Amino acid sequence: MKVIPTINCNTFAAVKKQIKEARAFLPKNSWLQIDVSDGKFNPNKSWNNPEKLKEWLKTEKIEGINFEIHLMVVDPKPLVMRWLEAGAKRIIVHVETITEKDILFLKGFGKGKIGIALLPATPIKAAATYIEHFPFIQLLAVKPGFSGQKIQRNVLEKIVFLKALYPGITIEIDGGVNDRTAPTIKDAGGDIIVSGSYIFTATDKKAAYATLKKI
């Protein structure tokens, strides 16, 4: 499985710190996710300033990182454009925040630029309309917003079901991922795991990342 560290911070100072930490252990051209929460879609409000990040990355000459932005906001459309213009490689939007009328708009950004996400309580059928257009799906295994939560086991059933219905789909799992839960995600058919607190709170972040990569 692929491993993507995720940053979920309230301040730009914290975001910059974790990007620098990730840069120290990530191979070149690896993926790094940033969670963006508006405090309305979920309880937590996180840092969100794509233009400022673009400027800082240029000033610090930080290259070789593919940024994936997970939008946990009630109206993702304006932010999709801002983050892509700032250099993000992929944006993940929740099916709970879009409608079928938004498909054409989102497809307009190009193949592979948009992924969809489902909350733990959202049934797979809610994503059926979107999967043929965006065959990259992120399943949240915890309630969105705060890092360090325990995985909800029903996500494993969703993985198995999705792989059976859509063999070509790419499934990313976000929430509660650690060295104990990652093997069960892999066995269920998960393709990518996203990990925040397990990596960034570890004493040896490089070792924590390497542990997940070996699974």
Question: What does the model show?
Answer:
The chain has 215 residues and is α/β, with parallel strands linked by helices. It contains nine helices and eight strands. The protein has one domain: TIM Barrel (Alpha-Beta Barrel). It has helices at 12-25, 50-60, 77-85, 103-107, 128-131, 154-165, 182-188, 197-200, 205-214, and strands at 2-7, 30-37, 65-72, 90-94, 114-118, 136-140, 170-174, 192-195. The protein has an eight-stranded parallel beta barrel, surrounded by four helices. β1 (2-7), α1 (12-25) and β2 form a beta-alpha-beta unit. It is globular, with a radius of gyration of 16 Å. It starts with a strand and ends with a helix. The mean pLDDT is 94. This is Ribulose-phosphate 3-epimerase. InterPro entries: Aldolase_TIM, Ribul_P_3_epim-like, RibuloseP-bd_barrel.
CATH architecture: Alpha-Beta Barrel
Q: Main sheet: which strands, in order across?
A: 1-2-3-4-5-6-7-8
Count helical runs.
9
Within CATH, the superfamily carries the name Aldolase class I
- Calculate the terminal CA-CA distance, rounded to whole Å: 7 Å
Largest sheet: 8 strands, parallel, barrel
- Determine the strand fraction and express it as a percent band: 15-25%
Poorly predicted segments: none
CATH topology: TIM Barrel
Shape by Cα distribution: globular
Report the helical percentage: 25-40%
The assigned structural class equals alpha/beta
Topology pattern, helix = H, strand = E: EHEHEHEHEHEHEHEHH
Radius of gyration based on Cα positions: 16 Å
* Tally of individual domains: 1
User: Average pLDDT value?
Assistant: 94
Protein name: Ribulose-phosphate 3-epimerase
GO molecular function: metal ion binding; racemase and epimerase activity, acting on carbohydrates and derivatives
InterPro entries: Aldolase_TIM, Ribul_P_3_epim-like, RibuloseP-bd_barrel
GO biological process, one term: carbohydrate metabolic process
